[in-house]
Design brief:
Layout (H helix, E strand, L loop, with lengths): L24 H7 L2 H9 L7 E3 L5 E3 H8 L2 H9 L14 H7 L3 H8 L3 H4 L3 H8 L17 H5 L10 H7 L3 H21 L17
Antiparallel strand pairs: 1-2
Helix pairs in contact: 1-3, 3-4, 3-5, 5-6, 5-10, 6-11, 10-11
Length: 209
């Protein structure tokens, strides 16, 4: 490196010898095979499944796609309500995995998910018609990015936020974006009174969540 520091080691990846088993949902997600991911989901594959193989590397399809930088696959899995908070064997959420590898397009997509992202979907319509009276926005599976999510620390000896991981691996543009997005979310959350409350438009008549 120009400033004399030792270059950081590469971010953890899925070792090819013990990565997702060939032909699984996780495997197709990691390879960015959108058509096969769609086909498997249509045939009933569990979007929340985690592939655990020799070596203990447990990766969900979403985390696999995020780690490999396949935004189209990530978007499909999120739309199917894949768990964005589930961690892999390194204790990384999909956001951690994408940030550590500098996949700004995936990081931006995840960090900018809000209520508007879900409008028009069957899940949103169902929640708005009645389920929202009993469950919070997030409890209904309609996940939105929050400062709490951005502040989440990864597992392992060097526990870091997604922004800190991006910084550690010299992905300055990713860190800058995450810092800016954190400020935006913090302002929005202060306006609606907390990180886990539904967007302002949905608060009326629902009570506390």
């Amino acid at each position: 490196m120009a400033d004399g520091r030792l270059a950081p080691p590469p971010p953890p990846s899925i070792p090819p010898t013990i990565g997702p088993v060939s032909g699984t949902l996780e495997d197709f997600a990691y390879k960015g095979n959108l058509a096969e991911v769609k086909r498997m989901l249509e045939r009933g594959a569990d979007v929340q499944s985690v592939e655990t193989v020799a070596g203990g590397y447990g990766w969900s399809a979403l985390n696999s796609a995020a780690a490999a930088g396949h935004k189209d696959v990530v978007a499909l899995l999120v739309r199917k309500c894949a768990n964005l908070e589930a961690t892999n064997a390194h204790g990384h959420t999909p956001l951690h995995s994408a940030a550590a590898r500098g996949h700004i397009h995936v990081v931006r997509f995840i960090a900018e998910i809000d209520e508007n992202y879900w409008k028009g979907t069957d899940e949103y319509k169902h929640w708005k018609k009645g389920e929202g009276k009993e469950k919070s926005f997030e409890e209904s599976g309609l996940w939105i990015a929050t400062t709490q999510y951005l502040d989440a620390k990864s597992g392992g000896k060097k526990s870091r936020t997604a922004a800190e991981l991006a910084d550690a691996f010299d992905h300055d543009f990713v860190k800058e974006f995450l810092d800016q997005r954190h400020e935006e979310l913090e302002i929005a959350e202060q306006r609606r009174g907390g990180t886990n409350k539904a967007p302002p438009a949905e608060q009326k008549g629902r009570g506390k969540t």
